[in-house]
């Protein structure tokens, strides 16, 4: 019987309670976990519940909103507002920040993309939620317009063959939890996740349709991935959560660089770049901006100048980020130590 039933389930709540003495942080993570269960349920029932398709609106970033985008956003906002531990919320789906009513306010500010990769929803390809958490200072949006170094917790949840939550506390390890549908709980399944130390599988992941817009060093590096003695495989889901989750587990490199068409890249700094950078770095990988506004820096050190601003992203291990840096060097660009 004990082989089939876990009599000592290492749940998310237990992990958080054991690893932080902060009760409000425990409430916050439980609240986020509840929203992820709701979103997973909606994503899983999208076909039968007729949730595919557009909601008829355009979101803060100019994308058409899908019905599931709107639902997921409502699920997260309702849960976080009523948690009693949040103060300011920023969502990809809302142009303006959301201020929690004073009687329900707590000490956290949370930025999130409720359903990232939503152009993949209608064909059942993996989608996910990404979040970053900051502590309240003045209770305004400035509390979120801070360096990624001030982010106290970051994570993502992927809705795929399994629903999996990966998160890290500032300066901590990266931990993975799978939703066990039989008990409705996230269970600790990946302890101290590490980016493969040898760089892992030889995979490059990017939207190569943007090739013509890229700077020469990025073009050269991608050509090098393809033409090396042992050519890399191309893998690009087009859902950031899925592409980063694979990169973290298998290795390789994921890039969405700045280019002539998008000088700041495409991905959003506050709820895509910074949280993913924290996870990749704290798992032992590198999260670089590539050449951005005249220099190459860490995504985790960026300070967003507005809640929906963008940043370029190059994430991988030293083996592959090094290939990109060498291409920059050949063009006279100073590169950081790896
Ligand atoms: P989507 O537009 O489908 O929501 O930033 C959002 C995002 O997806 C990421 O999840 C994804 O990695 C990226 O955009 C895909 O961009 P391209 O379609 O330009 O490749």
From TrEMBL:
<keyword id="KW-0479">Metal-binding</keyword>
<dbReference type="InterPro" id="IPR028343">
    <property type="entry name" value="FBPtase"/>
</dbReference>
<feature type="domain" description="Fructose-1-6-bisphosphatase class 1 C-terminal">
    <location>
        <begin position="201"/>
        <end position="328"/>
    </location>
</feature>
<comment type="similarity">
    <text>Belongs to the FBPase class 1 family.</text>
</comment>
<dbReference type="InterPro" id="IPR033391">
    <property type="entry name" value="FBPase_N"/>
</dbReference>
<feature type="domain" description="Fructose-1-6-bisphosphatase class I N-terminal">
    <location>
        <begin position="11"/>
        <end position="189"/>
    </location>
</feature>
<dbReference type="InterPro" id="IPR020548">
    <property type="entry name" value="Fructose_bisphosphatase_AS"/>
</dbReference>
<dbReference type="GO" id="GO:0005737">
    <property type="term" value="C:cytoplasm"/>
</dbReference>
<dbReference type="InterPro" id="IPR044015">
    <property type="entry name" value="FBPase_C_dom"/>
</dbReference>
<dbReference type="Pfam" id="PF18913">
    <property type="entry name" value="FBPase_C"/>
</dbReference>
<keyword id="KW-0460">Magnesium</keyword>
<keyword id="KW-0119">Carbohydrate metabolism</keyword>
<dbReference type="GO" id="GO:0046872">
    <property type="term" value="F:metal ion binding"/>
</dbReference>
<dbReference type="Pfam" id="PF00316">
    <property type="entry name" value="FBPase"/>
</dbReference>
<protein>
    <recommendedName>
        <fullName>Fructose-1,6-bisphosphatase, cytosolic</fullName>
        <ecNumber>3.1.3.11</ecNumber>
    </recommendedName>
</protein>
<keyword id="KW-0963">Cytoplasm</keyword>
<comment type="pathway">
    <text>Carbohydrate biosynthesis.</text>
</comment>
<dbReference type="GO" id="GO:0042132">
    <property type="term" value="F:fructose 1,6-bisphosphate 1-phosphatase activity"/>
</dbReference>
<keyword id="KW-0378">Hydrolase</keyword>
<dbReference type="InterPro" id="IPR000146">
    <property type="entry name" value="FBPase_class-1"/>
</dbReference>
């Amino acid at each position: 019987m004990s082989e089939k039933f876990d009599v000592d389930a290492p749940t998310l709540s237990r992990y958080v309670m054991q690893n932080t003495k902060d009760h409000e942080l425990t409430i916050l993570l439980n609240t986020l976990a509840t929203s992820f269960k709701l979103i997973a349920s909606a994503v899983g029932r999208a076909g039968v519940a007729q949730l595919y398709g557009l909601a008829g609106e355009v979101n803060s970033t100019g994308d058409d909103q899908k019905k599931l985008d709107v639902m997921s956003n409502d699920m997260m906002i309702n849960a976080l507002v009523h948690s009693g531990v949040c103060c300011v919320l920023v969502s990809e789906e809302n142009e303006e920040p959301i201020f929690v009513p004073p009687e329900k306010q707590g000490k956290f500010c949370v930025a999130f993309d409720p359903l990232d990769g939503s152009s993949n929803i209608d064909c059942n390809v993996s989608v996910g939620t990404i979040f970053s958490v900051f502590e309240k200072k003045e209770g305004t949006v400035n509390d979120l317009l801070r360096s990624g170094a001030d982010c106290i917790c970051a994570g993502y949840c992927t809705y795929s063959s399994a629903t999996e939550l990966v998160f890290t506390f500032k300066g901590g390890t990266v931990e993975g939890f799978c939703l066990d549908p039989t008990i409705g709980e996230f269970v600790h399944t990946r302890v101290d996740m590490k980016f493969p130390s040898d760089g892992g599988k030889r995979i490059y992941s990017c939207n190569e349709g943007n090739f013509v817009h890229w700077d020469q060093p990025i073009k050269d590096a991608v050509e090098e991935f393809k033409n090396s003695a042992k050519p890399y495989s191309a893998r690009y889901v087009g859902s950031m959560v899925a592409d980063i989750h694979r990169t973290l587990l298998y290795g390789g490199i994921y890039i969405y660089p700045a280019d002539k068409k998008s000088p700041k890249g495409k991905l959003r700094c506050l709820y895509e770049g910074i949280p993913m950078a924290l996870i990749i770095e704290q798992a032992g990988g590198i999260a670089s901006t590539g050449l951005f506004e005249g220099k190459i820096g860490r995504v985790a050190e960026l300070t967003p100048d507005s809640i929906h601003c963008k940043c370029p992203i190059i994430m991988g291990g030293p083996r592959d980020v090094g290939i990109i840096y060498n291409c920059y060097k050949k063009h006279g660009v100073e590169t950081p130590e790896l």
